[in-house]
Amino acid sequence: MLSAVSLSALTLAATSVLTAPATAAPLTAVPIEPGECAALVKTDFTHVQEAPTRLYTAKVVPANGKTEAYCHVTGYVAPQVGFDLKLPMTGWNERILGIGCGGLCGNTELFYDVLPRWKAPLERGYVTFGTDLGHRGADSQDGLWAANNLSAQVDFFFRATHVTTIAARAITEHFYKKPIRYAYFWGDSTGGRQAMMEVQKYPTDYDGVVALCPASNPIDSVQLTFYSVTLSKAFTDYANNASKIKLLAGAVMKQCDGLDGLKDGVIQNPLACHVDLAPLQCAAGQSGGNCLTPGEVTAVQAVYRGPQNGKGQIIAGGLQPGSEADWIGRYLTVDGSESFYYAFMRDFWRYTAFHDPEPDFEPSQLDYDRDVARLDWQQAMHSATNPDLRRFRDHGGKILMLQGWGDTSVIPDGTVDYYTMATRTMGGPKPTQDFFRLFMLPGVGHCDHGGLTGADVLDGVDDLQVMEAWREQGKAPASLTAYRLKKYEGVSSFWPQTAPPDPANVAFSRPLYPYPQVARYKGGDVNAASSFRATEPAK
């Protein structure tokens, strides 16, 4: 399915290695009176072109710790796109930041308001905003809102992010009485898809986007369903499922860990890992958690391969070696209950996948010929996989994409495949890397930390600062440094950070290079990023 970009064809321009925070953006002292915040509610934004807007509330939130006072605005863009906007009362840096949501979204609070990582951009003077993507949901797995509601689906898939951006621009410039210098977007998973949808459909909305593990293709739902059903049907020895998966993960690590020249518990390039399951298969009469039954071996092989249609053709790729520790909970359980993704996919297939709702559909009923073909109607709305990025490039835009190799929610080879196609379309590695770079994170899962074995906390250089330095100063990221921590309390993985990691809490560090380069051990301290070099990936 994938064709790697040859490193021999890759000639990077002279670029800066970013291992320290970029120069802070200049702050503009703008004296804003509290009454000016409250007055926003009385301001008529209903004539904003493409985004007729009305505000619900506008109130000052007092300074608290590092965060200065800000004007907290809520409102909607007609007919139903809710949004949440925060405007610093002092020290606006003349930049705005759109923030993506996750899953099926449905509110602004879950992914925008309550997570502490989003204090960092606000502390640095950013206007920040997020949207519910055009509907309210019970949680991020609730898909009932989409039933017979084409308007809401249009909002969810692409319109809501665009019109919220227009509204945020209008409110911001009215509030500060001066123009915006730079506009950025940051999102992971569904938010990553929002970022790439903006780049492809509305290429002048943003100057740069950070897209983490982007859920850009509806075919992901076929994969998640396939993994859930395949594994749950085979692994029915619930009491031993955890030990079986631990056994599998250990065997995979033993076979593939040293491919980068160092056995360190991290598989650098899973595409070069070809797992032999024969040693794990139970002998006649053997059972329990110390081996895999023939049916379990077949299921694991199918999951590594990916779903197939009735003709034996692979529809999409599989889970990568090294991701096994994340299968429990997401695809398998230890008590016979439904896995996370089986339940999640139920609402997707019932209410959003097909043109007409099918409220009794079960993921286990998925037909890999008929039902996959029925997803085609969604491609125009859902898919953010257009590799023609010329308009965004010509606008001066930059794309920073990060993806964990161990991701079990957004399958890594789909991200790699998209980047490969974009590279071909945009004229090759050099022209593409001038504005679009993908960094793959070995041993890292779905936009999170701690569950797998890799280094996933950036070196005090959050990805937004990397984007600022690239777009505003021309300092393209030739490499990034990531850390594996001993304890993760209060740390949000490779999300925006407020400070570098505490050296006493660092287990090891590793360099990250633009795809397709991978890190290979060259000698020295095995825990130091400086002991690795960029190399062409093994096949």
TrEMBL record:
Record key words, sorted: Calcium, Disulfide bond, Hydrolase, Metal-binding, Serine esterase, Signal
Highest taxon in the source lineage: Bacteria
Protein EC: 3.1.1.73
A GO molecular-function annotation: feruloyl esterase activity
Pfam family membership, one: Tannase
Species of origin: Sphingomonas vulcanisoli
InterPro entries: AB_hydrolase_fold, Tannase/feruloyl_esterase
Enzyme class per UniProt: hydrolase
Signal sequence annotation: 1-24
Protein name in the entry: Feruloyl esterase
Family: Belongs to the tannase family.
